[in-house]
Design goal:
The protein is mostly helical and 134 residues long. Helix content is 89%, strand content 0%. The radius of gyration is 20 Å and the shape is globular.
Length: 134
């Protein structure tokens, strides 16, 4: 479980450092995209470790635990900062924020519909296989 937490912490540190660097490049005294970078790194690293068979079940359990506890809190904190920035940033920031939320909502049915078809395929295949055996 410690290894999973270590992977998460490493991704968070790299994301924070890169976010601060991007912020300084843009002339902003803030972390720009650090949480997003950390999340992408976490997804990429864990995916590669799973495909290579180099991550244990306890390490995945550690990642799962912190996914459920930590990441939603960090995202909520980042979202509250973004809202405050948008309110003080003028109407263009508010319009951009609303547009992103609406586009995201529009994509949810598309993505969830695809997932339902993929989840049902093994059930249908096992049912067909079960009937053939009987």
């Amino acid at each position: 479980m410690i290894y999973g937490v270590a992977i998460l912490a490493g991704c968070f540190l790299v994301g924070s450092i890169l976010g601060e660097f991007i912020g300084s490049l843009m002339g902003v005294d803030s972390n720009v995209g650090g949480v997003g970078i950390a999340m992408l790194l976490l997804i990429i690293i864990v995916d590669k470790l799973i495909k290579a068979g180099k991550i244990s079940k306890p390490a995945l359990d550690g990642l799962s635990f912190w996914n459920q506890m930590y990441i939603p809190v960090v995202i909520a904190m980042a979202a509250s900062q973004n809202v405050l920035g948008a309110l003080t940033g003028g109407p263009l920031a508010i319009v951009a924020g609303v547009a992103v939320v609406l586009i995201s909502w529009a994509c949810v049915p598309l993505l969830s519909g695809k997932q339902k078809v993929e989840e049902q395929a093994p059930v249908i295949a096992s049912t067909i296989g079960g009937e053939a055996d009987a």
